[in-house]
Design brief:
The chain is mainly α. Helix content is 50%, strand content 0%. It has 36 helices and 2 strands.
Length: 1040
């Protein structure tokens, strides 16, 4: 196959048959006899007559298509970056500028049924060609984007309707705001016919948008157009379970029927309408207002509640039945309805009222608890009927959309669990509730294919059918495909349902009919995807044309400059502008190329699914047939349409060899190797196929040629990794050692970033285990020690506290100190963030044996009078942060002190109390009566204060002999003086070092050789560069 052809049937030229999408446009008797008898099938043997593309009249504003590149079967033969696949497609139909239908078309337009409903007999299926899978084109996909762009540029800002129409053409399913704005604009201009036309177009795209149906209905009722209003009710009530829409129906019925009619027919009509509405929407959790209106309607009817007449008794029975039905449904006003029912029953007869209330109380309690649970499940759910397209993963709104999907699924799962216990006694109500929730979910999630498939699956499992006997599950799939024509999931599920439910066919005619019925949903998806690719190509052409137009305008402006004024700088500037334009065009082409590649992958997998279906039903088939028959027929048809990836070549070739052991599989691989010369995954599959055939010679040849071709382009060298990995693994298992080492040598040269041991280990490893890297445990006691997490200053733990900056925390109110409980120790958590629950309190001795054991433990630990503390409290986060910022010890270049000597010095240095220091500083008189001495070895000090010991060696009592002294001065006895509140202040402690004389810091005029400094010797190593002058008088105990 040397060129891709259009999907339309082309005219014959010189009597030669020409291929179209529907088959060969010629006589079948022109096929050679040997090929008809099942001769050897060659994918390259199908040579199609190259025909010029039919001339299509295009609008003047549309730019011509670029010239075609040389192709083979719709694929690029050589460099994919230089050549582009422009397989001719059917000539697009260019519709008129306006998309709104005329009023006559709206009124006479029949409503299209699902594709499956149109298939009634095998003859009908046979006559239904694949090209006619759907007759209605997708809105906006066949319109030239270039024309739209030119029209948009030519519109004036005041042309609001035209601008909105352009937006709708560009994005009919995504730009809901443009639809609504266009409707409001037509209403504002009082263009009723145009507004009606826009409503019809919108509701064709969003047929379950109940809010728009209600607005449409209100517009018709405001114009007193009852015929159109009743038509809307006929089209929507059964299909859309929306409370607002059904309420509008009730209001319309009550508006058209006067309850003051003496014949009673109007009241009977309204009563039947209420029953009709409640039977269809009464189970909705928002239907409480309808139930309340219905009860009020019954109360206003003829007759007196509790009266003796038959009409009174009938009214009482109808009202009781309405109450009993309403209180068993989980609604927001179920409590209010129960209270009314209680008053109703107790007002009639207390004895019988208690009986009725007792019988209905369990149903009410179940409904009330279910309503509470349902409110918790649906909290945050947006029950809208205007669906939105799901955002792409990673873009704005994707998580919010997924959250809405999760909430709907939670509600559906809750209904399936039957919390109201309806399945044993009322199976129909249970199914109605679940089905209704599915329909409401699909109104909001119309563009979520999984929801359509789940609803269909549930209908299939429960054998749900509609009132006219149709399969509700298939109806869900048909509607879902109508809403998502690009969804491969819905199409394949629809095809699977048809294939699994249809009886097996024996003759070829019935098999062909079944195949056509199965592929119909797949054809719908293919048409949509091919149309999307065409639309992207048009957009790419329009965008590039716009860039070139802008560049030409800028060049024209620059060309007006006099040629004599041009210099080297201007030439460089022109070159730079040209490069900028080329870069922009390349970026545009790359962006559209990625989108087209994704769509091509979807198209390929649709053809793969069809190939498997055809192979199951019709076998291997043969190449030339009308319509396509078997595996080979559908493969040729796929290649005719184009836009395929290498995956379909791999799948078809494997089926040819694995199932039929046919050598055609190898030819298909060879053909694919020419079409996809730079796809490494394809060559890995090719090598696997050759090894499966035990064609080792050709496998080495293909490997060598592929490596040589990839090494010629440095950018393709990384793609050799999977090819080398597979071939090295195969040779390591079944080849020679010399070949394995040669491969490892080449891999080391090509991929120097990988460790050398990796290639050696790959010889012996499998997907499950690698014996080279897996370590053998020799000593579990030494090799499997659990990691202990200890707090370290130099290596803080990885937590919020070891972050580069301290985390600001809220200040807590002062709390009492915490201790460990002897019964329940602290948990191993951060005590600063999570304060312990036990508070410090006085030790309460335990009674009995427990108290004795605890006392023995405390005495053994030397903690008889101390609290039980298991571990020191952790440092505050700010201190940890400060310590973490300190440099390591090896970076310190200053003078180093001996830590032990420094600790000993601090321990042996006596520090006077603040009162002593203050008395010394103030120069207090030494005529006090008592002085305090730290030991009997030293004489009494000439200084004393109120803390000095008395004559008996005890501290002076505030009521003792020093009382007169305390009263001698009014200031001393003033409570404003610090330390005079009457509390006891202990005297300062004086410590002495062993083998040294006591150093008295309060003594004045000490001799230079005072022995009190002996304890300081060795505590500080004085550097030679420091000043060795005698130290000045120092003061201790000074607090700042």
């Amino acid at each position: 196959m040397e060129s891709g052809l259009s999907g339309d049937a082309l005219p014959q030229q010189d009597g030669a048959p020409v291929w179209g999408a529907d088959g060969w446009n010629g006589a079948d008797n022109q096929t050679p006899a040997d090929e008809e008898d099942g001769g050897e099938y060659d994918p390259e043997s199908v040579v199609l007559t190259s025909m010029p593309a039919p001339v299509v009249e295009r609008p003047v504003s549309e730019s011509p298509r670029p010239s075609k590149k040389p192709k083979a079967g719709g694929f690029i033969i050589e460099n994919s970056s230089d050549e582009e696949d422009d397989t001719p497609t059917p000539a697009p139909a260019y519709p008129s500028n306006t998309l709104k239908p005329t009023p006559s078309e709206i009124q006479t337009r029949p409503f299209s049924h699902s594709p499956l409903q149109q298939i009634t007999t095998p003859q009908d299926i046979t006559n239904h060609s694949p090209a006619q899978a759907h007759n209605t084109p997708i809105l906006g996909e066949t319109t030239s984007t270039a024309t739209t762009a030119n029209a948009a540029r030519s519109r004036l800002p005041t042309d609001i309707v035209g601008i909105l129409e352009d937006r709708i053409k560009e994005d009919p399913r995504g730009d809901i705001e443009a639809w609504l704005a266009l409707i409001e604009e037509q209403k504002r201009r009082n263009n009723v016919e145009d507004a009606r036309a826009v409503y019809e177009r919108f509701l064709k795209v969003f047929p379950h948008a109940a809010e728009i149906w209600v607005a449409y209905l209100e517009m018709e009722l405001s114009l007193d157009n009852t015929v159109e209003a009743e038509s809307i009710f006929t089209r929507t009530l059964r299909a859309i379970p929306d409370v607002q829409l059904w309420t509008c129906y009730l209001n319309y019925i009550r508006r058209r029927n006067d309850l003051n009619d003496p014949t009673g027919r109007a009241r009977q009509t309204v009563s039947q309408s209420y029953e009709f509405v409640l039977n269809n929407i009464g189970q909705d959790r928002d239907a409480g207002s309808i139930w309340q209106d219905y009860i009020q309607f019954i109360k206003t009817g003829p007759g007196n509640i509790g009266g003796p007449g038959w009409q009174d008794q009938q009214k009482m029975d109808v009202l009781r039945k309405a109450y009993q039905r309403a209180i068993s449904i989980p609604m927001a006003n179920v409590n209010y309805l129960w209270k009314e029912y209680d008053q109703f029953e107790m007002g009639l007869n207390k004895m019988t009222g208690r009986k009725f209330l007792q019988e209905r109380s369990p149903s009410y309690m179940t409904a009330r608890s279910a309503n509470t649970h349902l409110e918790n499940i649906t909290r945050g759910l947006k029950r809208t009927t205007l669906p939105r397209l799901p955002p792409a993963p990673g873009f704005e709104g994707d998580q919010e959309y997924l959250e809405q999907v999760r909430l709907w699924k939670s509600w559906i799962s809750w209904e399936k669990n039957d919390p109201l216990v309806l399945q044993p006694d009322d199976q129909s109500t249970y199914r109605q509730r679940v089905l209704q929730v599915y329909k409401q979910a699909l109104m909001a999630l119309r563009f979520w294919p999984e929801m359509w498939v789940e609803a269909a699956e549930w209908c299939f499992e429960n054998n749900i059918t509609s009132e006219d006997g149709q399969d509700t599950g298939l109806q869900f799939l048909s509607d879902g495909l109508e809403a998502n024509p690009e969804s491969l999931l819905i199409a394949l599920k629809h095809a699977d349902r048809i294939e699994s439910t249809q009886p097996p066919r024996e003759d070829d005619v019935n098999k062909a009919a079944l195949v056509q019925a199965i592929r119909e949903p797949c054809d719908r998806v293919l048409e949509t995807l091919y149309g999307m690719i065409k639309k992207l190509k048009d957009q790419e052409t329009a965008t590039i044309a716009k860039i070139e137009e802008e560049a030409s305008l800028s060049n024209a402006v620059a060309g007006n400059v006099d040629a004599d004024d041009e210099d080297e700088g201007e030439i460089k500037e022109k070159t730079s502008a040209e490069s900028i334009k080329n870069n922009r065009i390349k970026a545009i082409q790359d962006g559209f190329g990625i989108q087209i590649q994704i769509l091509s992958q979807h198209i390929t997998y649709v053809w793969i699914a069809l190939a498997r279906i055809y192979r199951r039903l019709q076998g291997q088939g043969h190449g030339r047939s009308t319509p396509s028959v078997g595996l080979r027929g559908i493969f040729i048809e796929a290649r005719q349409r184009g836009r395929l990836t290498s995956d379909i070549y791999v799948e078809v070739a494997n089926m040819e060899w694995d199932i039929y052991q046919d050598a055609v599989g190898t030819k298909i691989y060879e053909r694919g190797a020419k079409l996809f010369p730079e796809q490494e995954d394809y060559f890995v599959e090719y090598l696997k196929h050759l090894h499966a055939k035990r064609d080792f010679t050709n496998a080495r040849v293909v490997f060598s040629q592929t490596v040589k071709r990839f090494r010629e382009k440095p950018e393709l060298i990384p793609k050799l990794k999977p090819i080398y990995a597979y071939f090295h693994g195969y040779e390591a298992r079944y080849g020679e050692l010399a070949q394995v080492k040669e491969l490892e040598k080449q891999m080391t040269e090509l991929f120097p970033e990988e460790p050398g041991l990796t290639h050696f280990a790959a010889r012996f490893s499998t997907r499950r285990f690698n014996p080279i890297t897996a370590r053998v445990i020799i000593s579990p006691a030494r090799q499997m020690r659990p990691k202990t997490i200890m707090q370290s200053v130099e290596q803080p733990s990885i937590s919020a506290r070891s972050s580069p900056r301290p985390i600001p925390q809220l200040e807590r109110s002062p709390q009492p100190p915490t201790i460990n409980s002897p019964k329940r120790p602290f948990e191993s958590i951060d005590q600063e963030d999570f304060p312990p629950r036990k508070l410090a309190r006085g030790a309460s001795p335990l009674k009995g044996a427990a108290g004795r054991r605890l006392d023995q433990q405390r005495r053994a630990q030397g903690q008889s009078n101390l609290s039980h503390v298991t571990a020191p409290a952790p440092l505050p986060s700010d201190v940890n942060f400060f310590i973490s910022q300190l440099p390591p010890t090896d970076t310190f270049r200053g003078h180093v002190f001996n830590p032990e000597s420094m600790v000993r010095l601090i321990q042996k240095t006596p520090v006077p109390s603040f009162s002593e220091y203050r008395a010394q500083k103030e120069g207090a008189a030494s005529t006090q009566t008592h002085t305090r001495q730290a030991s009997s070895e030293y004489p009494a000090f000439s200084f004393s204060n109120r803390d000095s010991p008395g004559p008996s060696g005890r501290p002076a009592s505030p009521y003792g002999v020093n009382r007169g002294i305390a009263q001698a001065s009014s200031y001393r006895s003033s409570p404003l003086r610090p330390g005079s509140s009457g509390s006891y202040e202990p005297p300062p402690a004086v410590y002495s070092a062993s083998n040294t004389s006591q150093f008295n810091p309060l003594a004045q005029n000490l001799a230079p050789g005072n022995t009190g400094f002996v304890g300081w010797q060795g505590a500080y190593v004085q550097p030679p560069q420091y000043n060795t002058a005698p130290p000045q008088q120092q003061q201790y105990g000074y607090y700042q």
